[in-house]
Structures are given as C-alpha cells and as structure tokens.
Amino acid sequence: MNSPFPENFLWGGAVAANQVEGAYLTDGKGLSTSDVQPKGIFGGVVPRKNGDSGIKDVAIDFYHRFPEDIKLFAEMGFTCLRTSIAWTRIFPEGDEQEPNEAGLAFYDRLFDEMAKYNITPLVTLSHYEMPYGLVCKHGGWGNRETIVFFERYARTVFQRYQHKVKYWLTFNEINMSLHAPLTGVGLPENSTKQAIYQAIHHQLVASAKAVKACHEIISGAKIGNMLLGGLLYPLSSKPEDVMETLQQNREWLFFGDVQVRGSYPAYMKRFFADRGIDINITAEDRAALKSTVDFISFSYYMTGCVTTDEELNRKARGNILSMVPNPHLPSSDWGWQIDPKGIRILMNELYDRYQKPLFIVENGLGAYDKPEADGSINDDYRIAYLNDHLVQVAEAIADGVDVLGYTSWGPIDLVSASKAEFSKRYGFIYVDRDDEGNGTLERRRKKSFYWYQGVIRSNGAALKKAESSAG
Ligand code: BG6
C-alpha cells in the first residue's frame, strides 16, 4: 500500500526503566514499589533487603548494555524510543531536597546515545513505580505532600534534560490505579475506593503541575498523559448492556477527561455520590488542573465486553479488568483477546472526544518464542499481530485522526509487568534469559526485526492489508 503515514511520523519502541534497566540499587538508586514486587504488579509485595534476588534486579541489564541496544534500535530505523526515568535514581527515597547526581548522569548518557542516532526520546516520568520510601514514610499518593515531592522530581528532570528531551508523559496507564493500587498510587491492595480515588485525585493534580512545569521550563516541549486504552464493547445490543458499557468506559476515560479538559466531568458527581465517595478537592487543586496535556498517549493490547448478565460476570471475575470475553475474537497465549480493528475504533473515539493529537505508545504481542536449532527466531505470529494493528492505525489516519507516532511495546525482550515473567516476550530482539534468571543476556535479531525495519524504511508502505492474525 502507499504510505498513509505522515512524513514526520515517529516510529519506534517503548520500554520502562523497571522492566529493562536492572541495576536496582546501583549508583545510589533507592527501592521502588516495583522492586518490592518481584513477582510483578499482581504478584504481591515481598519486603526486600539489599541483595535479595528477583528477576527485575538484573532485568536485561539495560543500565550497562544500552549502547548496544540503542545501536540495534537504530539499525531497525527507530526515530523514537519511549523509556521512563526511574524516580528512585533521582530521588532515592523520594523526599530528599537534593537529587542524586549519579542517577541524573545515567540518563544524560542514555539520551546522548540516542542523539547519536537521531532517535527522539519520549520519556515517562513515572512508569509503574515510585519511591518505596514515599509509600512507607508518607503513605504514597494518599498523602497530598506527595504532589510536592513529585513536582520537585519533575522540575529537576525537566531542568536537567531540557535540551535533550522534548516529548514527555506524566504517569503510565494512570487509570490502572483502580486495579493495582500499590503500583499506581502507592496504596495497599485492599484500600477502599474512597482512599484510591483521593490518591488518584492527588496524582491528577501532580500530573497537571508537571504539565505546567514542563511548559515553563522546556521551550518547544510537548507533554501528554498516558491511558490504558481499555475499550469495552457491549456483549449484546440490550440497552442495559449498552448503558453499562458506557458507564464502564467512563471509569477509565474519566482520567483523560480531567487531563485533557482540565476539570472533573459532570458524570463523576453521580458516580461518587452513588458509591459514597467524597473527594477533597481544594480551590487550588481546581486551578492546577487547568494545565492540560498537549496530546493523548495510550497503550492498546486488547478489548473486552461488558454484560449485565450476572452468571457471565461471575465467570469472568478474576481477569485484570473483569471483562467478559468477546466470542468473535481469538486470544494470545496469555488469554489477551486480539482485536486489530479495536485500535481504529479506539483512535476514532479518542480523537472525536478530545480533538488532540494521539500517540500510540504501547502495542504488541506477548508470546512464547522458540529459537530454531540454528538459533534463529521465526516469530511470524508477532509480525501478523503488529502488521494487522498498524494497518488499522493507517485506517484511523485515513479517517482523519491526527497521530504523532507509534512505539511498539518491548522492542527488545524484557520482564513482563503483570507477573514479572521472561517467557512472555514482545521483542524484535531476543534476549537470552529465562523465568529463573538463567541465560547469557546475549541479544539476537528475530525475524520481526527485519520486518519492522522494512515497515519503518517504507514509512508503513510495506504493511500488508490482506495479512491477518485475527479479527
Ligand atoms: C502495560 C504496561 O500495561 O502493558 C507495561 O504499561 C507492560 O509496563 C505492558 O509491560 C504489557 O503487560 P505485561 O504484563 O505483558 O508485561
């Protein structure tokens, strides 16, 4: 197909500090909420002492090997790399007055390496981690004071990297706090909805303050929010199911509504009242929320269905978002339903709602890879998945949606977030490591490496409309 992607479309991949860097206590880094969840965000808290082992402690050792990895990304033709800064490298406990210079210097080296290859950094301030010190000493985002600590951290990195980083994101998948309170807002998993929404409120204020600070400090910067694009369909055309779907979609769109429109949407008044939730929002908070994002970024992996049928809901309970499976879609090895058309629907919905540019900052297939006898990895399933999704991104662009770029999740194999597995691989680059942490950490190009290189080189013209993994 001819390329429907704009000339300056940013192509690349996305990683997160806690899933690739390792070096979890190196150069003065403090313990993060991710470090105390060695089995992932759904694996519970394991209080740690220095030296305990967990697969993320080394991860893929990106902290030491990033020059080799950036070179491979450049070989694929990346024009953008999304990564995050580990807050604990900069403020190890979270409440210090002065930053940790060794941590700041690390990201200087990383961004300089990317600059060598003209790779634009897209940097998330907080990707599924915060200083554990803030949780233990201050009660995480439940405490209003955390806004001050976060703003100090954000201003520090904006100052430091103002000439190196122009694209920023505030909180990764900010709507996940409802499902993973420790990871999202530094609260215990059994926290009440009242406590979680108050913490979320503090985080939304902090996000807005970061937007303001970014605009003040960095000329020409663009800063976005980051949503888990959890699009839900009604399982049936029953009006009850359609209404319930509207409500459940609002539960995650609420975050975007505040971050893009600068105030709480009207529907949340009833939502909170019905649940006996009463949020303390000060006049100063309301003023702060007026600093809104420049673009909307989101992750997209799957869609789900909503029903008011109690029996079906009972059966579905237990999966991450309590969604009911869609009978029309296949699933990945991990039971995530594959829905390429869903990304086009989601993009149109978001653009209709906000009229702001979108950035797809995560999308990909977690799958088992089996190296052949000669060591090669023929991941045709991954190529099919990505191809089909990108074809739909192209369709959305043709629909009129303004899109800044696409960074696929995990361009190099990394530790999965939900359960800290290594066998769930997303990469174009294979990393020799297993779930127990054995392996040489050697990097190898998979078949998808060359496929993505061709896609980028042709600015999307090499995508195949007919190929289909699903949907
Ligand atoms: C997103 C996160 O939820 O999904 C990533 O932002 C995560 O951090 C990705 O890795 C895929 O999830 P998982 O559990 O397969 O790693």
Automatic annotation (TrEMBL):
<comment type="similarity">
    <text>Belongs to the glycosyl hydrolase 1 family.</text>
</comment>
<dbReference type="Pfam" id="PF00232">
    <property type="entry name" value="Glyco_hydro_1"/>
</dbReference>
<dbReference type="InterPro" id="IPR001360">
    <property type="entry name" value="Glyco_hydro_1"/>
</dbReference>
<feature type="active site" description="Nucleophile">
    <location>
        <position position="362"/>
    </location>
</feature>
<dbReference type="InterPro" id="IPR033132">
    <property type="entry name" value="GH_1_N_CS"/>
</dbReference>
<dbReference type="InterPro" id="IPR018120">
    <property type="entry name" value="Glyco_hydro_1_AS"/>
</dbReference>
<protein>
    <submittedName>
        <fullName>6-phospho-beta-glucosidase</fullName>
        <ecNumber>3.2.1.86</ecNumber>
    </submittedName>
</protein>
<keyword id="KW-0378">Hydrolase</keyword>
<keyword id="KW-0326">Glycosidase</keyword>
<dbReference type="GO" id="GO:0008706">
    <property type="term" value="F:6-phospho-beta-glucosidase activity"/>
</dbReference>
<dbReference type="InterPro" id="IPR017853">
    <property type="entry name" value="GH"/>
</dbReference>
